[in-house]
Amino acid sequence: MAKFDERWVDDDAGPVVRSYAFTRGRTRPRGVSLDVVTLLRATGREPPWGTRLSREDARLLTLCRAPSVLADLASDLGLPLGVVKVLAGELIHLGLLEVARRPGPERPHADRALLQKVLDGLRAL
Fold first, then answer.
1. How do residues 46-82 score in pLDDT, each as one tens digit?
2. Among 49, 39, 105, which Cα is nearest to 70's?
3. HEC-encoded secondary structure of 55-122
4. Do 88 and 42 form a contact (C-beta atoms < 8 A)?
5. Banded model confidence at residue 109, pLDDT cuts 50, 70, 90
6. What gap in Å lies between CA 40 and CA 23, rounded to an integer?
7. Residue 60's closest CA among 47, 50, 102?
8. What distance in Å separates the CA atoms of residue 20 and residue 101, rounded to the nearest whole number?
9. How many CA atoms lie within 13 A of 19 on its CB side?
């Protein structure tokens, strides 16, 4: 006979919520490739009419008022990186977040000869 008195709250960790509950069952971000060093920032736009943001979505937008790295956001939110990727992807799709460009010199393409020399040097080690 199955036991149905499982504990859904851990005294030390607080409430236990499955990752898929935060992402509404999604496992991948929509249409955008995000990695741990992706820099995100809030656009300042209002959510589209009829869109309901979760508490985590709102917290993510608040944290992104200043450009923030995805790994730091996951840490600040206390959520797994994969969950934050999915939430961020949805907010990007809605136009509420954007991938921020890193400051620095613009370089549309790398010098292939230089990269080959670096690769050859590394292989020689």
1. 988 888 888 888 999 999 999 999 999 998 988 888 8
2. 39
3. HHHHHHHHHCCCCEEHHHHHHHHCCCHHHHHHHHHHHHHCCCEEECCCCCCCCCCCCHHHHHHHHHHH
4. no
5. low
6. 18
7. 47
8. 30
9. 14
Contacts of 53 (CB under 8 A, 6+ apart): 47, 61
3-class DSSP state of 9: strand
Residue 6: count of CB within 10 angstroms of its CB: 7
The letter for the amino acid at 123 is R
Residue 46 amino acid letter: E
As a whole number of Å, the end-to-end CA separation of the chain is 63
Quote the CA–CA distance of 99 and 93 in Å, as a whole number: 11
